[in-house]
Structures are given as structure tokens and as C-alpha cells.
Amino acid sequence: MKSALKSCASALLLCLGFTAATAIAQIDWKQAQGTEIRFLMNKHPFTTFIEPRVAQFEKMTGIKVAIEAFPEDQYRNKLIVELNAGGKVDGYMIMPGQDDLYHWKAGWLQPLDGFIADPKLTDASWDPKDFFASFAKSSSVDGKRIGVVINAETSLLAYRKDLFTKFNRKVPVTMAELEDTAKFFHGKEVDGKKLVGITLRGKGAAATSQWVDFLYTFGGSWTDAKGKSNFASPEDIAAFKFYGDLLRNYGPQGGTMLHWAESTSSFMEGKAAMIYDANVFKSLYENPKESKVAGLVGYTVIPAGPKGLQLPHVSNWSLVIAKNSAAQRQKAAWLFVQWATNKENSLAALLAGVPSGRTSAWASKEYKAGDKTPDWTAATMKSFDIGQGQWNPPVINVPEIRDITGLVIVAAIEGKDVTEAAKKAAELMDKKSDM
User: Fold this and answer.
1) How far is CA 406 from CA 28, 324, 410, 421, 423, in A?
2) Residues of the chain with pLDDT under 70
3) Which domains does the chain have, with CATH numbers?
């Protein structure tokens, strides 16, 4: 009887396996067989994850994939040189919130909408609706989809659960409560150390990627409806002032020198009750070899602003296809992008520590079974869902405008006239953007 049941079960599994294989084999994966494609990539955790799997794709498709990966600074320089020179680049990695407008205006990006909509090129199982809408939006320019997310990121408020319990404090859900909580903990003596209420980035341009969440949550924006700087608006000024006051009054000394490394170190050493920074730093906070607060940290989304808004930024690396690649190589490149970002690889990447842009990966039983910080997962997923993809100024010369923005953040931290600093920055931003 057991043998018969075992045979039935095996037959059922074979049948299910055949059905699943049939379900995902809706396109001809051999249609670009013999094509060779070249991808330039940043030495990123996703690159480390996908490279050993490329042989599977090559065997399935008959497409030869050459991946050339470089450290980020070197990668960015090499990419620009090759794209400017019209070199044989079929696909590459891009950080849309930083580079999409520049690459789009330069004519380097091939829109993907036609590939995605073509049932002969895109398998139904790839399921474009499975990606968080915020990442699909952020990987689009002028209404055209130019990339597919491979690594998703946002920022969260992290806090000391043990201290909140000890002092019977509620997790802040509004900006007013955030300030009140920071004020409450600032100067409190715990284990012989005086706490700071909160730590944030404050080092000029480096702070903009976190300050932007306060900008949006206060109802502000980088630019107005005419594309001019919005820094002199009441909402933008309020965001600058709140961020500066928070760090100056309740943060570590020397706030204008805090980059992410200094800020996270302060929190990990147990010197701060709260920190607002990138969600990926959970791996630092929870590392018992490096962090004194491992196992003691709670996570939540950014508190709501004066008008009830909660708009954290979302950022990502995406895979794109080069505009000047030949049609057959573009087809092969799309098959590779599609395969690299399918549900199976997206889940495997998440399990390997690369945050996925797919909802199904986060909701999977495999991920949930090993999730030791479900509040981090919940806050991350909510932020992905509600997030704003434009985390950098929507201009071509992003670094210059970030520097200008950083001047106002520093002025706010130093307690200077924020309104005057914001007005000067707005004028400078418009001048630089018009050049």
C-alpha cells in the first residue's frame, strides 16, 4: 500500500512538474541562439549573485553572455566612456534616481515597453505586475519603461526597543512625536552613557538622500510645476528647518560631519535612541560581532508629516538595454534581463540578502520562514509600496544640485537663517540647471 501511495505521489509530482514547466515555457527561449551579448555591471551584491547562474541561462537559450563587472566608481567612468564612444555595450546597470535623465537625454536607453508587451518575447510567468509599482515608476522616463529593478532600497526609522519599553515610550507616528521622542531621550543616562535622541546624516550632499524623505513628507518637492527650484516654498523650508533642528538639538555633536558610517556607528555603539537611514543597514545593526544593539532594534516607516503625508524615497539599481545595440542583440539582451529578474531568481536573490523589487519574493513562505525581523520586513514593504522614486533632484547635473542642497542642510544644522539659505540655493539651482 505504501509503495502504491509512493508511486502515485511520484506520478503526481511529475505531473505537477510537467505542468509548471509547460506554464513557464510560453516563449521560444532559443529564438536568439548563437547571439553574443555584453553587459557592463557594477560589482554589486546582485552581480555576485547572478554571475554563477549565467551558465544556466546560456544553456537554456544558446546565448553567450559576457559580464564585465567593476567597482562602482570605476564602473561609472568606464560606462560613460564606452557609451560616449559607441562601444559594443548591449546592456548595463543603472541607478535610475541618479542617472536615468542623463542617460535618456544622451540617447543611450532603449525603452522596454515593446519587449514587455510582446508575447513572443516575454513569458507570461515573468508577470510585470508583480514588481512594486514605485520601482516600475522610478525606472521610467517620459512615460517609457527603461529598466527592471534588481536591487530595492528605502530608508526606515530604527529605534531601541529596549529603551522604548524601559521608559514606556510609544513609537512615533508623526513628525511632532518624532521630535518629542528625540527630546525625551536626549541626555538620558543609560548604562553609564548619555544618549542622544536621534542620529542622522548631516554632511552636506551626503545628507540629501535621507533629507529628501523629510522633504516629501512635509509636502515639499525638488522643483515646481515649471521645473524651477522649489526650495524657497514654505514646505521645503519647513523640511530643511525640521531636519536641521532635529540633528542640532537632539543629535551627536558635530552633526555636519556625519556621513552614514559615522551615524550608523553611533547607533551601533548604543549612543543613540533612534536613527533614520537606509534599510540595508539592518545587517550592520543586527551583527552581534560589530553592534552593541543587535537584537534590540525595532523598525518602522517614516513618521507622517504635518499634512499626514508619509513619503519615503525608494531607490534601486536596474538592468537596462543599450539603445545603440543591434536589434538581434537587443532581443537577446531582453531575454537575459527577463531571466535575471524572473520570480525564481528574485526570490533566490532576496534569500541571499539582495532586497527584491518583487512582491512575491517578500511574501513567499521561504522568505517568511527565515525572517528574524518581521517589523523590518513590514516597514520595508510598506515603504516600497508608498515610496517616491525621485530621490535625487530631477536634473541632468545631479551632483552639483546635491551640493547646493547640502549647503542649506548644513545651514539648518548650524542654526543659521534657513529661509535665506533656501532662497539663495533656489537661485543657484535654477542657474546651474539652465546651464
Assistant:
1) 51, 36, 6, 11, 14
2) 1-25, 434-435
3) 33-152+315-384 (3.40.190.10), 169-313+389-434 (3.40.190.10)
